[in-house]
Design a protein that fits this description.
By secondary structure, the protein is of the alpha/beta class. It has helices spanning about 20-30, 35-40, 60-65, 70-90, 130; strands spanning about 1-5, 15, 30-35, 55-60, 95-100, 105-110, 115-120, 125, 140-145, 155-160. The protein has a seven-stranded mixed beta sheet with strand order 1-9-10-2-5-4-3, with helices on both faces. It starts with a strand and ends with a strand.
């Protein structure tokens, strides 16, 4: 998995971000919508996204993944969220789609193939990147790092994929 410190992920592709310092400015710019509202767009897309029109922050996916059983959570990612991402990127390819999460510890990386796993409260895991970003995209996942942090080791703020097919 390659590292990214640039901020281009704010304006293209889809990301998962889990730091308050990164999510805060997006919330204050009125860029946040609920997962329910995002999925309703599949029936009637707005002409442009709210807020600054460059980034859409979706809240609520984490709770769904924690509350559903693993099979249903993976089905949600595969059958509802992934089609949403595909349609989003075909309509607004110069706009970033971000799913907000509460903490980095919810994510584990399978070192063998760089698959991103979501660890639920019950310690079971959801194959997050496989179903959200398509298993073929594991080679295209970027580890987002805080480019503004000082020091040689930059903290991880999320994961990003430029485009899925």
């Amino acid at each position: 998995m390659r590292d990214m410190t640039a901020t281009s992920w704010l304006y293209q592709g889809s990301s998962v971000v889990f730091t308050k310092a990164t999510l805060g400015p997006l919330i204050t710019k009125n860029n946040m919508i609920s997962l329910r509202q995002a999925l309703s767009w599949l029936n009637a897309w707005p002409e442009s996204p709210d807020g600054d029109g460059k980034t859409v922050l979706v809240a609520g996916l984490e709770v769904c993944l924690d509350m559903m059983d693993v099979a249903d959570a993976e089905k949600l990612l595969r059958q509802r969220i992934k089609p949403f991402i595909l349609e989003f990127q075909s309509r607004w390819d110069q706009c970033g789609l971000i799913f907000g999460f509460s903490q980095m510890e919810k994510f584990k990386i399978n070192a063998a193939d760089d698959e991103v796993m979501f660890q639920r409260k019950d310690r079971s895991q959801v194959r997050f990147s496989r179903y959200l970003w398509d298993g073929s995209s594991t080679l295209e996942i970027w580890c987002l790092k805080d480019g503004e942090a000082s020091g040689s080791t930059k903290p991880v703020i999320g994961y990003h994929v430029r485009r899925i097919s």
